[in-house]
Amino acid sequence: MFAIYTNCNKQLTENEETLPAVAMTFTLCAIMLLPFSQQGVTWIFEGQNLFPMLFMALAATSLAYIFYLAGLEKISSSSAVTLSLAEPLTASILGVFLIGEYLSPTSWIGVAMLLGGIVVLTLGGRKTVASVKKMRRLRIWI
């Protein structure tokens, strides 16, 4: 599902600026999810909920996706999806070292596989960029 989201946003950012693209995406998603809200959205405006919701909406979500979509303008969507796997990887490693969480051996194998995939993607991407530049100099269109 995230790959579909990324591909759609990659196409959207080719035609729109980053901020309007994020605004359009989040507005459409909110409208589609609204019918599933059992209690409506009035709870957002209660005193204790307002500031945490504003923080999550602006800092934790909108700003992160503005940066993500800005990055999509510079790299391929397949690379972006693979690199986004670093998020749970980082959370797992921080959980182990900062708050003492336990990861099973299977989880550590997953961590190693994710790190390996990111390394392969990074090293493979460098070769691809170099070969594309070389082919453009030779006037071969890919």
Provide the fold topology.
Blueprint: H1 2-15, H2 18-33, H3 47-72, H4 77-83, H5 86-99, H6 105-137
Helix pairs in contact: 1-4, 2-3, 5-6
Could you characterize the architecture of this molecule?
The chain has 142 residues and is mostly helical. It is built from six helices and no strands.
Quick tags:
mainly alpha, 142 residues
Shape: flat
Mean pLDDT: 79
Rg for CA atoms: 20 Å
Task: Note the run of SSEs as H and E.
Answer: HHHHHH
Low confidence ranges:
none
Sheet of most strands = none
Indicate the percent of residues in helices.
over 70%
Q: Decide which structural class fits the backbone.
A: mainly alpha
Number of strands: 0
Q: What is the helix tally? A: 6
What quaternary form is this? Answer: single chain
- How far apart are the termini? 28 Å
Beta percentage is: under 5%
